[in-house]
Specification:
This protein has 631 residues and is an alpha+beta fold. Helices cover 25% and strands 30% of the residues. The chain is built from 14 helices and 35 strands. The strands form 7 sheets. It has a 15-stranded antiparallel β-sheet that branches. Strands 30-31-32-35-33-34 form a 6-stranded antiparallel β-sheet. The termini are far apart.
Length: 631
C-alpha cells in the first residue's frame, strides 16, 4: 500500500501476481453523482482478530473508504465500503498484465459479436464489455475470474455488475457492482490455475450428480430448431426423424423446439400444425427415440394462459409498479413470467407439464429463456439470484434429455449437475471457434457437463457449409456431449426458404463422428464419475494439466478431454494445422505413431475425414481411450 494512493499488490514468493490499476484509475472505485471517484491516501490502519482494517481518503471530499482484509494460506477476503458521498456503485480495478492472462467469466459480451461469434481466450486477448452481468442474465456467467499467474477473483454478490476486461484495449479489468452495499471479494493465490479453480469449487460446490444419463452422453440429441426454426410441423418433424434414422445417424431423443404451441405460454399443441401429437409421439418411440419439447415460463399477452395467470397472481410483478404484472419483450413478442417464488404458480406450471407428459407421451423438456428479468421485482424475501435457485429446482424434476438448462450464479446451479448448452451460435467458422473457447470458459467456472450450441450453429443464418457442419460434428465428438440439429442429409435455408441437400460424404463423415463419440462414451462416463468426486472439469484447457507449459496458455483450438485425450480438430477452413503437444508421450491416432512432447507439429494434415486426436500414454484412462480411438 502506498501512502499517496491506496493500492493492493498481491505477491507470491516475492513476485507480484496481481496488482490493482494505476493511481489515476484507482484500485477501489465508486460512483457518486454520475462521476467516478477512488480511494487515495491511507489515513489509518489496524490489525485485530486476524483482520487488517485500512481507512483512506478519496477523490471526493467528505467520502471515506474502509477496507478489511482477512488473509488465509491460499486467499484473502477483501470487504470494503464507502461512507459519505452517496455512492451508488462500487468496483475493483486491476492491471491485467500484472497477473498474466485472464480466464473465467463464462459467455462474454464483446464488441466483436460475442457471445454468438466471439469468445476471447484468454479474455485479455480481446475485449469484454459486459454491462448487465448478473444473476438474471441469459448468459452462462459467474463472477469468477482466474489468471495464468495462478491468482483468482470471486465477487460475492447477488446484484448485477458491469464488467470490462480490456475494454477499449485499456489493459484494465473493471469489476463494478451495481450497489452501494459492502463490496465482498475473495482473492485466491495458488500454485496453478487448476488449484485456483478448485478453491472456487470449494465455495460454490461441485455437482452432486449428473443430470444426463450414460446414453445421453453416448449419443447425440437431435433438436428441430436449426433445421426448421419456427416453421416446424408434425410432418416435417417426422420426416426429419425418419431420414436421420434411415441414414444411421442415431440419437437418443428427437426434441421439438419453438413453435409447437397454439400461442406462447398456452402449453397446448397447435392443431393446425400438429393435428395428432400423440400419434407423432408413438411413431418416434417406435423408432427408438424419446420425444422432448421446448418450453418456457414466459407467457405472451395474447395467450389464453396469460389472463388466467394474471387473475390468479401467478406472474412476476413489475419493478416500476409492483401492483401490475411485469411485461418483458423477447424474440417472440411481449410476455409475463411465471413467478416461481409463488408456490401456487409453480404448482400450476408443473401441473401443465405433467399433463403434457401423460397425455402425449412426452419424455422430457428443454427449458428456455430465463427464470427472472431485471424489469421485474422479486417477491418479498427473495433476491434476483434466488430465481436461479428456483429455476434449478424446477428443472431438476424433469429429464432435460442431455440439452440441459441455462442456470448459473448460485450453488444450486453448480450442484444440480445440469448439462450446459451454449447461447446460439452463428453458422460460420468464427462461430465454430467461439463454441470451443466458450466451452472452455463455461467448463472452468464450474459447469463441467458442457456441449456446444447445436452442431452447425443456429441463428437463422444460411445453413452451414458442408465443411463447417462436418468439422463441427468432429469437434463435438471430442466433447462430453453432442447437441445436434442441422441434418447432414438435408435442411432448409431459412433466408431463402429453399432446400439444401448435402452429399453422401457429409452423411458418412457426420455418422463417423457420432460413432467415434459413442466409442469414447465409456471413457467419458469415467470422467463424469471423476468430476462428481472432485469437481474437476472434463473438457479443460491444456494448462490445467500442464501448468508449466507456457505455450498452452494462449492455445484456442486444442483441449484436454479428461487426463488422457488431447483434441486438436480442424476449426478453420483448410487441410492442415499446427498442433502443440505438451510434455509426455503421445499416441497420434491418425498418424499411428508415438510422439514425445513437448513438440510442435507444423503442417499436420487434416483432410476433411481426419480429426487430429492424441492419447497421453500412461495417463489414467489411456487404455480405454486408445481402444475407442485407434482404428
Amino acid at each position: 500500500m502506498a501512502t499517496g494512493a491506496l493500492a493492493l499488490t498481491t505477491q507470491r514468493a516475492g513476485r507480484t501476481v496481481l496488482g490493482t490499476a494505476p493511481a489515476d484509475t484507482g484500485a477501489l472505485r465508486f460512483r457518486s453523482g454520475g462521476q467516478w471517484q477512488h480511494a487515495t491516501a491511507v489515513t489509518g490502519w489496524s490489525w485485530q482478530g486476524g483482520v487488517l482494517t485500512v481507512t483512506a481518503d478519496s477523490t471526493l471530499a467528505g467520502a471515506t473508504v474502509t477496507a478489511r482484509i482477512t488473509p488465509q494460506a491460499d486467499r484473502y477476503q477483501l470487504d470494503w465500503d464507502v461512507s459519505g458521498g452517496s455512492a451508488d456503485q462500487l468496483g475493483l480495478a486491476y492491471d491485467l498484465a500484472s497477473a498474466g492472462h485472464w480466464y473465467g467469466h463464462g459467455e462474454t459480451t464483446t464488441p466483436n459479436g460475442g457471445p454468438a461469434t466471439d469468445e476471447p481466450w484468454p479474455l485479455d486477448s480481446g475485449q469484454v464489455v459486459h454491462p448487465g452481468f448478473g444473476p438474471a442474465s441469459y448468459n452462462m456467467i459467474d463472477p469468477f475470474w482466474y489468471t495464468s499467474a495462478a491468482t483468482g477473483l470471486r465477487v460475492d454478490t447477488g446484484d448485477s455488475m458491469d464488467v470490462s476486461i480490456n475494454g477499449g484495449h485499456d489493459g484494465l479489468g473493471l469489476f463494478t457492482v451495481d450497489s452501494a452495499a459492502t463490496y465482498k471479494a475473495s482473492v485466491f493465490v495458488e500454485s496453478t490455475p487448476l488449484d485456483v479453480y478448485r478453491d472456487y469449487i470449494g465455495i460454490v460446490g461441485k455437482p452432486a450428480k449428473s443430470d444426463a444419463t450414460y446414453e445421453q452422453y453416448a449419443k447425440p440429441l437431435w433438436n428441430s430448431w436449426a433445421q426448421y426454426y419456427t416453421s416446424v410441423t408434425q410432418q416435417k418433424l417426422l420426416t426429419y426423424a425418419t431420414e436421420l434414422h434411415d441414414n444411421g445417424l442415431d440419437g437418443h431423443t428427437i426434441q421439438l423446439d419453438d413453435r409447437w404451441e397454439s400461442e406462447y405460454g398456452n402449453l397446448t399443441f397447435n392443431p393446425a400444425t400438429f393435428p395428432d401429437p400423440k400419434g407423432l409421439s408413438d411413431k418416434l418411440h417406435a423408432m427408438g427415440d424419446d420425444f422432448g419439447l421446448w418450453v418456457t415460463l414466459w407467457i405472451n399477452l395474447d395467450s389464453v394462459n396469460y389472463q388466467y395467470a394474471v387473475d390468479h397472481g401467478y406472474l412476476l410483478k413489475s419493478a416500476a409498479d409492483p401492483s401490475k404484472p411485469c411485461t418483458v419483450s423477447w424474440w417472440n413478442g411481449t410476455a409475463g413470467i411465471v413467478d416461481l417464488a409463488n408456490p401456487d404458480a409453480k404448482a400450476w406450471y408443473v401441473g401443465n407439464l405433467r399433463t403434457l407428459m401423460s397425455t402425449y407421451g412426452i419424455d422430457g423438456f428443454k427449458f428456455d429463456t430465463r427464470f427472472f428479468d431485471e424489469h421485474c421485482t422479486p417477491d418479498a424475501g427473495y433476491a434476483q439470484s434466488d430465481y436461479q435457485r428456483l429455476g434449478a429446482e424446477l428443472a431438476d424434476q424433469f429429464d432435460l434429455q442431455g440439452v440441459g438448462v441455462r442456470v448459473h450464479w448460485t450453488g444450486n446451479a453448480h450442484q444440480a449437475g445440469f448439462v450446459t448448452r451454449q447461447v446460439d451460435k452463428g453458422t460460420n467458422w468464427k462461430s465454430l471457434q467461439a463454441s470451443v473457447t466458450q466451452n472452455l470458459a463455461i467448463s472452468t467456472i464450474g459447469y463441467p457437463f458442457v456441449e456446444t450450441d447445436m452442431i452447425g450453429g443456429s441463428t437463422r443464418k444460411a445453413p452451414p457449409t458442408k465443411d463447417v457442419l462436418v468439422r463441427w460434428a468432429q469437434s463435438a465428438s471430442l466433447m462430453p456431449l453432442m447437441y445436434a440439429s442441422t441434418s447432414p442429409v438435408e435442411t432448409v435455408d431459412s433466408t431463402t426458404g429453399k432446400p439444401v441437400v448435402y452429399d453422401q460424404q457429409t452423411i458418412d463423415l457426420y455418422r463417423a463422428a457420432i460413432q467415434q463419440h459413442e466409442r469414447l462414451a465409456p471413457y467419458i462416463w469415467d470422467q463424469v464419475q471423476h468430476t462428481l468426486a472432485t469437481g474437476d472439469p472434463i473438457m479443460r484447457p491444456l494448462f490445467f494439466d500442464f501448468p508449466q507449459d507456457q505455450a498452452a496458455y494462449t492455445i484456442t483450438d486444442e483441449w484436454m478431454l479428461g487426463p488422457a485425450v488431447l483434441a486438436a480438430p480442424q476449426l478453420a477452413d483448410g487441410t492442415s494445422r499446427t498442433v502443440h503437444l505438451p510434455a509426455g508421450t503421445w499416441y497420434d491416432v491418425n498418424g499411428g505413431r508415438a510422439v514425445h512432447g513437448p513438440a510442435t507439429l507444423t503442417g499436420y494434415p487434416t483432410p476433411l475425414g481426419a480429426t487430429p486426436v492424441f492419447v497421453r500414454l500412461g495417463a489414467p484412462g489411456a487404455a480405454k481411450a486408445l481402444k475407442a480411438l485407434r482404428p
